[in-house]
Amino acid sequence: MKPIIVVENVTKKFSRNANDHLSYGVRDLFQEVIGLKPRLSLRRDEFVAVDQLNFHLQAGECFGLIGRNGCGKTTTLKMMNGLIKPDLGSIFMEGRVQALINLGAGFNPKLSGIDNIYNSAALMGLGRRESRAIIDEVIEFAELEDFIASPVQSYSAGMKSRLGFSVAVHLKPDILLVDEILAVGDFAFQNKCFRKMQQIKKSGVTIVLVSHAHNSIIQLCERALWLDKGRTMAIGPSKEVVQSYLKFIEERELERLESEKHNGSRAKAAPAAANAAPPADPFGGMYGPIYDEFDKIEDLAVSFEVGGAPVDAVRVHDPLSIGYRFRLRERVSDLNVTLKFFRSDGLNLTTISTLNGDLVKHIHEGLVECRCELPDFDFNPGSYCLVIAIHEGKSYLYRNVVKQFAVLGNGRLTWGIKDFKYEYRVGPPENPREAAASTAVRAAGG
Fold this sequence. Notes:
Elements: E1 5-15, H1 18-33, E2 46-57, E3 62-66, H2 73-80, E4 88-93, E5 97-100, H3 113-123, H4 128-142, H5 157-170, E6 175-179, H6 187-202, E7 206-210, H7 214-220, E8 223-228, E9 231-237, H8 238-269, E10 297-306, E11 309-310, E12 313-315, E13 318-328, E14 335-343, E15 348-353, E16 366-377, E17 382-392, E18 395-408, H9 432-437
Parallel strand pairs: 3-7, 3-8, 5-6, 6-7, 12-18
Antiparallel strand pairs: 1-2, 1-4, 8-9, 10-11, 10-13, 13-16, 14-15, 14-17, 17-18
């Protein structure tokens, strides 16, 4: 069967300087007009955004593009949509193409929503009668019945997003190019978009989907392509490609933690300048108030251990042991310590407090040394931090981020925030003996 999309040896360069980029583009266009081959060597401030990209898609296939920000995903979609031209290689697209790269792009802000729907339909080659046949579906899906006669410039960003998506998916394209559409709007609209994407996929539309929502890539796409700095790292079944990408991200996170740990050690070793101002909160208040003076405590040390060995990364369901020690510099009467776990985006996941049982209230001076055992650490893979808060009554003696760490999945697919430990049985057992022999799949260990 003949592919509906063919991308062969596509390369695209950009300049970091906007003026140079424009100048280079004019020169390259002139060389093309007079029949000269395009220049492939990099000029001043240039970098390769997409490097020798190749893939073919059949009609009705859903194909995912994944990778870190700046890897070339959106550039690829823009080249496929004809918004920018490859410096090398060719792109073949058969059929009507609709792109959702920038929702609301192409709308005339002074025209009403309904006029913009008709304009978009006309650009896709639909006649007035065909446009009228879908107009009610577009408006109903976008939930803009009360505002469709108002100028688009009066719409909120969310309203423009709903209208842009609704117009695109109801114009019956053969090929749909989608850039992070499932991450816009409120939660209800995201679910609505996802259901609509599944519907148009079943109708035979070929979809190229860019998304950081890896579970959406696995659910919607048969195959996926992983890009890193413009280069193809893997292409194949979406689940396998996503797992390879997540493993790569985990390795980079471990390298980052090791680098920060090394740099932190060097910073501690460097002598402080006389009368130096106290350092500002490096996290911008994301993890709450910071009180990092050591006038009330000293010799603070915090450790993470798995199996007795210190670690900076924990696997899902590892038994984690957290130890901390500090020395009180003055007598206290109402001591309390809290361990607050945050995701790297500032979401507070849980707090462990010695208030549950007044565990350290009897300590009034000297050395404080404690260990907290977590037999099943079930946070999902990602980047996290631990904040320790030491209180005297309601006053802080100390509060700061004391540990940044990663949780690794080791190739295990996870969803949400936590990964429950569970047993999974298939089929109802007929008797207790069969129940004991039935297959059980446990989360721990994959």
